[in-house]
Amino acid sequence: HGQIERIGGAAIITFNVEGKTAQRSSESVKDVRAAVEFIIRWIASDNSGVDEIKKLSDIHAVGHRVVHGGEHFTKSAIITDEVLRTIENCIELAPLHNPANVKGIFAAREVLGAGLPQVAVFDTAFHQTLPERAYLYAIPYQLYRRHKIRRYGFHGTSHRYVSYRYRILQNIKREKVNVITLHLGNGCSMAAIKGGDSIDTSMGLTPLEGLVMGTRSGDLDAAIIEFIASKEGLNVHEVETLLNKQSGLLGISGLTNDMRELIAESSENKDRRAKLAVTIFCYRAAKYIGSYLAAMNGADAIIFTGGIGENSPEIRAMVCENLTWMGIEIDEQSNENLANGREGIISKESSRLKIYVIPTNEELLIARDTIRLIDEGKTKS
After folding, report:
1. CA distances from 189 to 84, 85, 196, 211 (A)
2. pTM of the model
């Protein structure tokens, strides 16, 4: 797995093959097509460690993460012209993400050929099981009817993966999965999963709602938008940018959106605002857990995932400190030991709810969905 950041200039490229040393380099990547070409060129090179692919014809399909599928997709889909048009029609719901997803699809078509199967795996699909009481906002109903203004939720592939892993670890059927999943990274979201289905989630129409995040505010009073605009002389778009890119941990601390740095600053340098940012982050997460326990009428486990959730014992402990009233007990040694991709339980045997750390693997789920849909297509034909 790997990624290319800062497309359009001197891109930073990181890639890793399991069991081999991770590689990092910088190269000029002018656009998405150039990025796709670079990825294929690297995979086919002798240095990649991917022995199965040495030429274009060795690639049988491409899987794409697509952020927003609206109400149109309840599961992953083979990308046809109609599916692509629907993704494009959802751009107004995800103007920061879907355009890049569409560019990636077109780039793969151009480089690999229009006949190569491609699959879209939607962030929103897993949350299409939300009941009306969870996804509707208390605004005039006709606004939902006309514009589909509702809660969609995101990080669905991550929440789906860790709930699946929990099922495997517990050796139970899907309908027995009753868990709360916390995806904590630069973007953060939570999901209430009952009977294997998502019944509530913290992100909303966009990924801005919900938990405090690296640079996103999460929940706030809607009237604040107009108030900031009038006081700061900003338009609505500028306020939206402020809430998405200048708020959250960065906004409160005034230092950084990196949780590791904030923890260090608050403990080593006694920085008050760094500590405040961390405290608010954990307080908001604990509040959401409490509300989801009520929505689910109880749960069997809480699962931490994402960059912070997987690697920060401090944050996991602080979140759970606010949950001792319900009999949650953390094993300090187990909590300290679980990081860097390790999976396991961090709660004591006596804890009323089990607390898990399960590293997410969205790429694996995208690959599996792609293989499954391509195989199903072959069977039907």
Report:
1. 27, 28, 17, 6
2. 0.94
Given 31, 51, 123, 300, the catalytic residue: 123
pLDDT single digits (tens) 61-116? 999 999 999 999 999 999 999 999 999 999 998 888 899 999 999 999 999 999 99
CATH number at residue 259: 3.30.420.40
Asked whether the beta carbons of 196 and 174 are under 8 A apart, the reply is yes
d(CA 161, CA 202): 17
**Domain range for residue 324?**
173-362
What is the 8-class DSSP label of residue 347? B
DSSP 8-state class, residue 194: E
Active site residue 123: yes
Phi, psi of 121 (to 5 degrees): -115, 115
Task: Report yes or no on 37 lying in a domain.
Answer: no
Q: How many distinct structural domains can be found in the chain? A: 1
Query: Do the domain assignments include residue 162?
Result: no
Residue 61: inside a domain, yes or no? no
